[in-house]
């Protein structure tokens, strides 16, 4: 049995069915609406720390390609990314990481301004260069869960029960709020940032924190922009860029520092631009979204692209759960045969297939 219909739960269902299990899959919502549908959909290799984190991301990237082949509606695209430098010191950070031994595994190449404009004509801003990452990819977050479930539906081994909240667990079983007990070899609970019901005590005591992000989406952007864009603020955020050149960077703008903002910009399958993000304490969050960081992110995206952006059509916030003890994610057997898996932070979409594989291993 799998509890939670976000990307972690769904990938455990995919892997479980592939291994020959009969899987019952429940979510408290009629259609999942947690972090997995609110994100960028990035399968992000470029920013991962060297070593274990990169290895897991590369394994996951490989699994994503395989899984997406059986779920055509997922919108998986090996579109690559461009981390864009707007100054000589930012470019030096990119050159430093492109010279490291793991650069070829990530598919890194530094592009000067002329090559960048030739290969990616939609990026017309006044920029110093960019880091191309060929291994980065993307899926459509609003479609991917349904597409994966549709792929499972034909297996004959999969039952999807939305609108059921798990309210009790015991060895090898969980009870939902309709009163039904679901038993099995294994109950995998992927409840995301929720810390309620039978998971409240376990997760409140675990080394986890919640982080809240603000996002927006524009009307379709007419230019042919395939690659995901990231700005220089992302150099401070992703561990891959740590090193002497990063130490030499001038401080971030005051507004980016206050909102712990970085620009990520994905052109969706329908042409809309998903733009974010900010980072704030998720336990302390208000229910509304603030305008100040949006103005900053829109201005940054517009300056990289060198054109005015289409109008904003929607804004939202999302919360993820993140481990705080240096692990890549949190997994613990909270009762015999009942395993809780959460806490991959801002890399859950990326790592979900490999995390599921490790759970079964
Ligand atoms: C704005 C934003 C942008 C992000 N961008 C990226 C990105 O581009 N790339 C990336 O790799 N990661 C990204 N992340 C992180 C990623 O989205 C998360 O790590 C991932 O979605 C977590 O998946 P999950 O399945 O654990 O959680 P969720 O998607 O939150 O799913 C948990 C599910 O459990 C259900 N549930 C909870 N309690 C119960 C219960 N008692 N009974 C039944 N069901 C229950 C909930 O209804 C929910 O559907 C981003 C996150 C956010 C918020």
Can you walk me through this structure?
It is a single chain. With 361 residues, the chain is an alpha+beta fold. 32% of the residues lie in helices and 26% in strands. It folds into 2 domains: 1-78 and 137-206 and 326-361, 3-Layer(bba) Sandwich (FAD/NAD(P)-binding domain), CATH 3.50.50.60; 81-134 and 208-323, D-Amino Acid Oxidase, Chain A, domain 2 (2-Layer Sandwich), CATH 3.30.9.10. Strands 4, 5, 6, 13, 14, 15, 16, 17 and 18 form a 9-stranded mixed beta sheet that branches. It has a 6-stranded mixed beta sheet with strand order 8-2-1-12-20-19, covered by helices on one side. It has a 3-stranded antiparallel beta sheet with strand order 9-10-11, with no helix packed on it. Strand 15 and strand 16 (272-276) form a beta hairpin. Helix 1 (7-18) packs parallel to helix 7 (144-153), helix 1 (7-18) packs parallel to helix 13 (348-360) and helix 3 (52-69) crosses helix 13. The mean pLDDT is 97.
Taken together, the total number of domains comes to 2
Q: How many DSSP-defined strands? A: 20
CATH superfamily of the largest domain: FAD/NAD(P)-binding domain
Oligomer: single chain
Percent of residues in β-strands: 25-35%
Could you please say which CATH topology of the largest domain applies here? Answer: FAD/NAD(P)-binding domain
Structural class assignment: alpha+beta
Q: Label the CATH architecture of the largest domain.
A: 3-Layer(bba) Sandwich
* Share of helical residues: 25-40%
The overall pLDDT average reads 97
**The first-level CATH class name of the largest domain:** Alpha Beta
The main β sheet shows up as: 9 strands, mixed
Small-molecule binders here are: flavin-adenine dinucleotide
How many DSSP helices?
13
Please give the alpha-carbon distance between the first and last residues. Answer: 16 Å
Show unreliable segments: none
Shape: globular
Radius of gyration: 20 Å
């Amino acid at each position: 049995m799998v509890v939670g219909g976000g990307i972690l739960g769904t990938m455990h269902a995919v892997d479980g069915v592939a291994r020959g299990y009969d899987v019952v899959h429940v979510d408290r919502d009629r259609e999942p609406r947690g972090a997995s549908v609110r994100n960028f959909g990035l399968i992000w290799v470029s920013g991962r720390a060297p070593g274990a984190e990169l290895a897991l991301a590369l394994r996951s990237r490989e699994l994503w390609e395989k899984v997406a082949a059986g779920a055509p509606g997922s919108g998986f695209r090996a579109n690559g990314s461009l981390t864009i430098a707007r100054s000589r010191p930012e470019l030096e950070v990119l050159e430093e990481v492109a010279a490291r031994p793991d650069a070829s595994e990530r598919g890194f190449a530094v592009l000067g301004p002329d090559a960048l404009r030739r290969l990616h004509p939609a990026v017309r801003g006044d920029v110093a260069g960019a880091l191309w990452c060929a291994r980065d990819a993307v899926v459509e977050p609003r479609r991917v869960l349904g597409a994966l479930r549709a792929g499972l539906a034909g297996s004959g081994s999969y039952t999807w029960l939305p609108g059921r909240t798990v309210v009790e667990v015991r060895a090898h079983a969980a009870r939902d709020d309709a009163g039904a007990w679901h038993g099995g070899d294994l109950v995998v609970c992927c409840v995301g940032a929720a810390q309620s019901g039978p998971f409240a005590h376990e997760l409140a005591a675990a080394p986890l924190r919640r982080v809240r992000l603000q996002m927006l989406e524009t009307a379709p952007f007419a230019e042919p922009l395939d690659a995901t864009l990231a700005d220089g603020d992302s150099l401070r955020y992703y561990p891959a860029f740590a090193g002497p050149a990063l130490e030499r960077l001038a401080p971030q703008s005051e507004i980016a520092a206050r909102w712990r903002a970085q620009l990520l910009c994905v052109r969706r399958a329908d042409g809309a631009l998903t733009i974010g993000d900010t980072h704030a304490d998720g336990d302390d969050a208000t229910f509304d979204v603030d305008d100040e960081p949006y103005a900053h992110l829109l201005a940054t995206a517009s300056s990289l692209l060198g054109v005015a952006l289409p109008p904003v059509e929607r804004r939202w916030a999302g919360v993820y759960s993140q481990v705080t003890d240096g692990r890549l994610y949190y997994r613990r057997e909270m009762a015999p045969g009942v395993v809780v898996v959460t806490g991959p932070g801002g890399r859950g979409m990326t790592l979900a297939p490999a995390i599921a594989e490790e759970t079964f291993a």
